[in-house]
What does this fold into?
Amino acid sequence: MKHQAVPYLSFNGNTREALNYYKDVFAGEISEIQTFGQADFPTPPEADERIMHAKFTKGPLFFMASDSFPGDSVMSGSNIALVLELESDEEIETLYAKLKEKGTVRMELEDTFWGARYAKVEDPFGITWDLNFEKGQG
It folds into this structure.
């Protein structure tokens, strides 16, 4: 695995406000904004304008961000995960198996509508790991 862990920040419906704040503070760029309403994923109408995924970059500073799903709130301390962009199907299968052995699966390993295999697992120390393998890359 040659990729670094990428922080993923979660917000309670105010991701746009937070990203604009970070843009002002760090003079960075916001990209790849996709709302729940734009995604090929069943969501209630009240989620349509919430941000499902966005990226922030400024030089080596890079993180991703999203709003929580309506009804799921996030609290300080539970609003960050580490995303691992993986290089192969074998690698994601191996890490998923190891993490779920003593951890808690938040989302089963599965194919996604964005063209990746993905899983979310909380380790026994409370750290959430998002495992992502873009299928066309390996």
